[in-house]
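User: ok so my PI wants both of these folded by tonight, can you help

Assistant: No problem, let's get them done. Here's the first:
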Amino acid sequence: MRQVLSAPPIFPPRPVRLELTDVTLNGDLTLPPQARALIVFAHGSGSSRHSSRNRAVAEVLQHAELGTLLLDLLTEQEERTDVITAEFRFDIPLLADRVVGTIDWAAALDQTASLPVGLFGASTGAAAALIAAAKRPSGVRAVVSRGGRPDLAGDSLESVAAPTLLIVGGRDDVVIELNRQAFGRLNGPKELQIVPGATHLFEEPGALNRVAQLARDWFVDHLSRSAATGH
């Protein structure tokens, strides 16, 4: 059952192909008429473009006038291999490089070049998003992690300047501890939110809706502030 309650989707996504340095990725770009920022979704598996959870969160962001880019960080061949071996979803440097490439792609695209960028990372994609934020400090203005593994960002955590929100389910004990460890290493503005009663995938009634609200408020606050100061 879908958990995020929002108005019917009124912003149709546009399929895009991202021609990066050494790979072509597929994505779905949605830009509300008065979009004030672009949120790039990063997941450790190439299925993120079709993830019902990510799409539900994206719709809430879109209704707050935030553009969204849901993309597959893996190619179709890599995804087929990953389903069997899980090797690519834990290749954090590879995923991070592709998030960086996506940030550069958005900066060069006419429709998104003027928009401040936020990153929404889930699972190992959260580590990739944080590494990308460290590598592109002027290009990333806010980061949100949903049930992520920010600890896998390693030494890059200390270099993340973007305001970062870590969201974890209250019953996801192991991931809570890993997020607390990563939280202690972040030097920029930061917040750790634990959703009571939620497990790793936020499948409980109302849990994903809470994630979407927290992400929306974080992005609206920090990206609007960024735009207002001209950064």
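One down. Here's the second:
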Amino acid sequence: MPSRPTSAPSLFSDAPAPKPTQSTWINAHCDGGARGNPGPAGFGAVLQDENGHILAELSEFLGVRTNNYAEYSGLLACLQYALDHHRPRLRVVSDSELMVKQIQGKYKVNSPDLRPLWQEARNRIAKLEAFEISHALRHKNKDADRLANEAMDRGMKRSPAPASGKNLSSFGEAGGPASRTEAASIARPYPTKSETPPNPYDKANAMLRGFTKNGTIHLLGGATLPDGVFVKIIRE
């Protein structure tokens, strides 16, 4: 089991690209999600060598973020792993069509929140010898999806049972990274501690559902709000 890194690398790094030492391809599946969008978010990623052997399984809780932020976080973690381990040829598979096509240059990046992440991804890609990214449906990205959900569970103080035959170990504060294989390596691209997510079981902060009519909010189930409360409307 590799030792815990002494410090977390910065999300945005100006460090020069490491000298490539291996020219074979490695393959990565990455995924990210948020429960609430924005809500408690996390990413997961699985990296394999060209023979299908697992090099690392990465899983990180991100605090309260959007789905797209989490998707980009998974990609950045894969890129950083490749750079840190002198693996200059990387193929990435993601079920986020938006992110994949933005990285490919087919879609514009209009979101001010995603633009810095997109730029950082492009910077890291430029340090590699070769890079490919492709889109796959979610059912072909199951392992990365599982790791992303485990990250969100940790951040929300849930404790899912480890998969049979796997040794799940974690360290640090709740929401810290976890390793699932003896060959796994930890990636922490975020230097600051994640925000504490809202407690989904706190009735005082529970999400209420309703609809608007003639400019008035009508809550379902007979729910009421005290005077002076600010609300956020999410179109469904």
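The chain has four helices and nine strands. The helical segments are 67-84, 97-103, 115-126, 142-155. Good luck tonight!
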